[in-house]
Amino acid sequence: MSTSTKVTEVRLASRPVGRPTLDDFSIAEVEVPGPGPGEILVRNVEMSVDPYMRGRMSAAKSYIAPFEVGKVMDGGAVGVVLESTVDGFEPGDHVLHGFGWRSHAVLPAKKAHKVDPEAAPLGAYLGVLGMPGLTAYSGLFRVAEFKEGDTVFVSGAAGAVGSVVGQLAKLRGAKRVIGSAGSAEKVRHLLDDLGFDAAFNYKDGPVAEQLKAAAPEGIDVYFDNVGGEHLEAAIASANVHARFTICGMISVYNATEPPAAPRNLAQVIGKRLTIKGHLVGDHYDLQSQFLAEVAPLVKQGRLRYEETVVEGLENAPQAFIDLLDGGNTGKMLVRL
């Protein structure tokens, strides 16, 4: 057993105001002791950067503790076990855990889950078969109570969550699936690769007008990853008794002023809309059901996924900033 391991880690250097910059991060090298009783030492192979991490960079009270200034950040990662003091975890095993943003991690074995690199590529366990995939599955089927024949609108549809939402809706018999994205290339991807019925670039004109043209008969389900103008447009196009899953509002994460929209909330009354906030942490009871249904679809190629991979831990801060700017198609990963 080794006594210590040299670890490179990314720390929060300062709390950003508005859009984060590289100055808000720092990179440090530290020595960590070998694993104690009940612990494993993992060398991280791939890590995730996710929009929710922007909220953790601020000190505001939220559903999850903020990152501490001067301390290493954390998030989803997949790695290989180097040392173990625990039965059931052997060197060479691959595990999914929450101690990303560092090259190596010593962690309690009970906070790691074994994954099979033969069954799916490691990155898939951070994306389509991981937290984003479960977010899509639970948000569409449990929170929005999707029904066959629904017309579904997804914002941020080319991202890790939105792309799975749209495809699952199609596979389950949606009448029409519409997505919004931020570039012509992403719109093409939604239509040609993922099978969306309609898609538009929200930068091409008012979202309300583009959505109305794409969904002339209105929408029954809205899966919101963006907020702001998109949410206002969805309320305008909503049919009576439409169901909204509010999963994220990336359009306002870097805002320093309150958003102007939605200005049409009164329509919620007449349309009897159901609008529910969605946190994946409430739905981990669905994990085995989700994997049983979705893993075969991925393996058969019936549910497609994209990854935007950035090489090198030192580039993780830039990858995160690019994610907030829409610089990813599908899941944004950092390969160590």
Topology:
Elements: E1 4-12, E2 25-33, E3 39-48, H1 53-56, E4 77-84, E5 94-97, E6 104-108, E7 113-115, H2 131-143, E8 151-154, H3 162-171, E9 176-181, H4 184-193, E10 198-201, H5 207-214, E11 219-224, H6 229-237, E12 238-246, H7 267-270, E13 274-277, H8 287-299, E14 307-311, H9 316-324, E15 331-335
Parallel strand pairs: 8-9, 8-11, 9-10, 11-12, 12-13, 14-15
Antiparallel strand pairs: 1-2, 3-4, 3-6, 3-15, 4-5, 5-7
Helix pairs in contact: 2-3, 2-8, 5-6
What does this protein structure show overall?
- The structure is a single chain.
- The longest helix is centred in the middle third of the chain and has 13 residues, at 131-143.
- Strands 3, 4, 5, 6, 7, 14 and 15 form a 7-stranded mixed sheet that branches. This protein has a 6-stranded parallel sheet with strand order 10-9-8-11-12-13, sandwiched between helices.
- By secondary structure, it is of the alpha/beta class.
- It has helices at 53-56, 131-143, 162-171, 184-193, 207-214, 229-237, 267-270, 287-299, 316-324; strands at 4-12, 25-33, 39-48, 77-84, 94-97, 104-108, 113-115, 151-154, 176-181, 198-201, 219-224, 238-246, 274-277, 307-311, 331-335.
- Helices cover 24% and strands 27% of the residues.
- The chain is globular.
- The mean pLDDT is 96.
Task: Point out poorly predicted stretches.
Answer: none
Structural class: alpha/beta
Distance between the termini: 24 Å
Biggest beta-sheet profile: 7 strands, mixed
Helix content: 10-25%
User: How would you describe the shape?
Assistant: globular
Strand content: 25-35%
- Radius of gyration based on Cα positions: 20 Å
User: Helical stretch count?
Assistant: 9
Average pLDDT, to the nearest integer? 96
